[in-house]
Amino acid sequence: MKPMKVFLVFSLTVVLALPFACIASSAKSRYPGSKYSVFVQFVNANTNADLEEPPKINVGFNKHPAYHPFIMDTGSCGIVATPDVFKPGANAINLGPGSTYYDSDSTTAMGTYWTATQQIYDPAGNLLATANVPVLQITQTCVTNPDGSTTCNMNPTKFALMGIGFGREGSSLPLKTPAYNAFLNLTQVKINGKLRGLPKEWVNGYVISSTGANLGLTDVNTANAGFVKLQLWLQYSKSNLSEWMPTTMTVNINGASGYGESIMDTGIKFALLTPPNDANLGTPVLCPGTTEAECVPDGVVFNVYFPNEINPVAFYTFTTGQQDNPMQPDSVSTAVVHPNIFFNTSRKLLAGMNFVYDNKNGYCGYIWNGNTSNWYGYVIPTEE
Asked: To the nearest whole number, what is the mean pLDDT of the chain?
């Protein structure tokens, strides 16, 4: 396996041993007074309708006019780039060594954290927003092979990832707090054609669709959303920037149900599953592109409820091997084992639902986007 080739499907899925964290919400008026948001279209929006590739956003650094397409990953947190993509500014501060682990492909990236500022552009290179978070410049990558051996690359290149997920902390990854999330640390946004500081009414958060990201939440861009209340993660929260535990779900697999954690992960197109103990998954098959028999065979029915089966605000279903369901992940892997029941939906969820994250108030949400048949899912909008 060549390490940098697998980088294109990188995504962070941290093993978490957490109390289940979401309950159904009956919130009041969602964002009174908030009318500011910036839409950032993905660089590959027009060529990635089937979501086979991860979404990408143009990002530059330290007021330099050059920019580069970065994978926008909701399954991890933090900006990671190789030296050919990111170079520290003249006055950058060395924050010390750092590393990050992507367990979806058993890769560890190592390097140095630097202070930096970011510019976020549209596909045509128009500046839409600026941010200020540290960047991990990686100078070594190591892949753990199926036989336990390690293959390292001492000169990685052409890797650029912007992780904007929440609840990604773990004991081995202490630097994945909201302070490393560029979407939550914006310093300026383009309003009425001009770049300016964040308005006082700004609601920190985002809406992710198959074509782009809305930065900042309003009643308009969250219309018809079904919201789920998140539990505050005190250990990683600051007075000016909260962290929230991952969302929860009930997954029903061929009739066996289990309640656990879930993430929507734009970094990968295959799902990751730690199933209920009594789930009948059949005989494992080879995962696509691997020699490992760790994927769920065809014909297994999945029903997924957010935040639970009793009071769902969102639901979708698929059968492995199905051909006509755009929300279906390319495969379902059981290779990554979590201490609790766990389901990573993959980015294919976006074929039917937009995903909302409200960092300010502590909600995640789902919006049925109408791009997929209602045979495969629904969202119940939260009443104001």
From this structure: 90
